[in-house]
Amino acid sequence: GAVIYGDTGRIREGDEVRATGRLLEVPAGEAMLGRVVDPLGRPLDGAGPIRTEHTRPVEFAAPGIAD
Asked: What is the pTM of this model?
């Protein structure tokens, strides 16, 4: 299976896909504070690109309740 995160208009049956071996990540850090982003971390607020050196995986184990 595959999940498409982006424009699907040019994808056709029979197109080749390749695994990247990476998990989905989004920008993280101080640069994200106060920004409005979509679920993939892309800016929606018109304030320009988000410049950050750090990313976080979208899916990860939640910390325990006592942590």
From this structure: 0.62
